[in-house]
Design a protein that fits this description.
By secondary structure, the chain is α+β, with helices and mostly antiparallel strands. It has helices at about 10-15, 35-45, 60-65, 85-95, 145-155, 170-175, 185, 215-225, 255-270, 305-310, 325-330, 355-370, 420-440, 465, 470-480; strands at about 50-55, 75-80, 100-105, 120-125, 130-135, 140, 160, 195-200, 205-210, 230-235, 240, 245-250, 275-285, 285-295, 315-320, 340-350, 375-385, 410-415. It folds into three domains: about 10-125, 2-Layer Sandwich (Uridine Diphospho-n-acetylenolpyruvylglucosamine Reductase, domain 3); about 130-240, Uridine Diphospho-n-acetylenolpyruvylglucosamine Reductase, domain 3 (2-Layer Sandwich); about 245-465, Vanillyl-alcohol Oxidase, Chain A, domain 3, CATH 3.40.462. The protein binds flavin-adenine dinucleotide and 2-acetamido-2-deoxy-beta-D-glucopyranose (4 copies).
Length: about 500
Amino acid sequence: MVAFADLSLSFLFGLSSFTVPVTSSGFLDAGNVLRSTVCEQIATEVSSSSIVYYAGSSQYTKDNYHWSASSSHDSECSFEPATAEDVGIALRILGQTQTQFGIKSGGHAANAGFSSTPGVQIAMYSFSDVVYDSATQTATVGTGLLWDDVYAALEQYSVTVVGAKVTGIGVGGIALGGGYSYLTNQHGLGFDNVVAYELVLPNGTVTDITSSTDPDLFFALRGGFNNFGIVTRVTLKTYPQAQVWGGRISYSLDQWEGASSAIANFWANATDPKASIYNTYNYISGVAEISTILFYDAPTCPEGMFDEFLSVPHIEKDISTRSYVSLVQSLPLNVTSGLRSVFHWVAMEEITVPVLNMVANETLSWGAELTGSSARIISYDVDPYLPTLYDHVDSPTAYPPTRDRGYSFIQVYYGWADSNYDETMFDAVDASAQHMIQALTDDGQDIANVAVYPNNAPPDTTLERMYGDNLPRLRAIKKAVDPDNVMGLTGGWKF
Ligand SMILES: Cc1cc2nc3c(=O)[nH]c(=O)nc-3n(C[C@H](O)[C@H](O)[C@H](O)COP(=O)(O)OP(=O)(O)OC[C@H]3O[C@@H](n4cnc5c(N)ncnc54)[C@H](O)[C@@H]3O)c2cc1C
Ligand SMILES: *[C@@H]1O[C@H](CO)[C@@H](O)[C@H](O)[C@H]1NC(C)=O
Ligand SMILES: *[C@@H]1O[C@H](CO)[C@@H](O)[C@H](O)[C@H]1NC(C)=O
Ligand SMILES: *[C@@H]1O[C@H](CO)[C@@H](O)[C@H](O)[C@H]1NC(C)=O
Ligand SMILES: *[C@@H]1O[C@H](CO)[C@@H](O)[C@H](O)[C@H]1NC(C)=O
């Protein structure tokens, strides 16, 4: 056991060496002799700006990279389309030859096969434009970008958009999957702020989807991921963005009581949508610590608002007035990449000291149990939101199925290195989520049936559990737009 006094997030950096080799898999499926030539066919038919890469090239390696080892796979070839028309040509070839493919934006999906494939790996990197339109106060951004890049590119105009909270996440998985951000209390989810998608339909046709051109697809894309085609660009509302106040502060185990009290008091008093906190209860290679991100959307925070956090003895503190992108990068969760991983998600109505003690107990007891075998990281992240968080949208979205009220949530993340422990970890994370749902229910919270966030749901989650009553409509839209089920050749949640 490491002495708690020695703790800092620097021990996380040691983990970056945990790059687990990806096993290569050939094309074993019967009846797919065509496949090895599919890559060549795509290369031949697309324009010269779009390129197919093979194993051995650095672009192939980059295209196949995924944050999580459990969602990484060597592909037959990778394809970097540079125009929406070329995406359409590739989709038609893949459909005609019934070839599996993966669509990757930032590659942060943890579930196996969601954005990776043994077939053709489509990587969106060439869609990297950020075009700001001050007249409409929107920005059109390519789905090959990370949110970090988008925030940084918009800084010169003193505006930003609602994307991810943490460094390294792609535009695609948020614009099509949700997007809980430090700005969500003010402006809603990431995709609540999308005004248009440039979408390549499964039959290869390029279209612009807005609430007026196609209300069905505009509803379905906001939560429906890759079921309806491939999105090349999204247009998002922008908001004025000055410097922000905040950053990371971390506490060793002997200060968890004080940290949990600060979190509960912040919650009890939370009314200001410009304030946000993100609290990670971590057990990393035998060491327990809490890292909290404090955020206020102005160069200074209101007097007293975060005093309790700052007065609890901490092992490190990186808090200042800084750019928005610098704040997003202040939690180095990316250094945990390369592990196998699973996420889970449990809603909360209230965040009290007993609830936080329950979360601390889950962190410590599963941490102690699982790091004995192969877990490297057990993380329970308490993410508070105002109940009004879902009020910032003009038309319905695929997720969440109801917007009657908003919920805070616990995001659970387990990371491990050895695939022999996959089942152990999946079972443990499920048991822990069930235990927390029970504990919260016993506490009087009505959360057992709240729709689970698809971006944090483990692979065995049913579609009903995430999309609820929206599912029949989503299935009907999918059937109409993709009668040949071309998008069934790629992984992810499938309607
Ligand atoms: C370290 C870490 C931090 C996170 N932080 C946050 C956070 O702050 N807020 C939050 O809301 N979530 C967060 N998440 C969850 C995150 O939202 C999901 O992992 C998300 O799907 C990642 O998007 P991506 O583009 O990087 O992933 P990918 O793996 O590239 O894509 C995810 C899914 O979207 C599909 N897709 C991607 N691009 C396209 C496209 N252009 N067209 C059609 N389909 C596409 C893929 O096929 C895949 O099924 C985090 C996850 C991790 C691992
Ligand atoms: C917040 O709420 C708690 C409990 O309701 C209260 O004791 C405290 O004084 C409030 N103010 C701050 C700044 O925490
Ligand atoms: C993590 O992200 C930060 C900020 O974006 C970056 O500087 C750093 O190189 C990244 N580290 C890894 C291991 O990816
Ligand atoms: C702590 O968590 C474990 C694992 O879920 C559970 O078995 C145990 O009952 C919990 N203890 C308390 C005091 O809640
Ligand atoms: C492609 O699909 C769309 C939506 O279903 C349809 O409107 C369009 O006519 C189709 N195009 C072709 C060339 O089949």
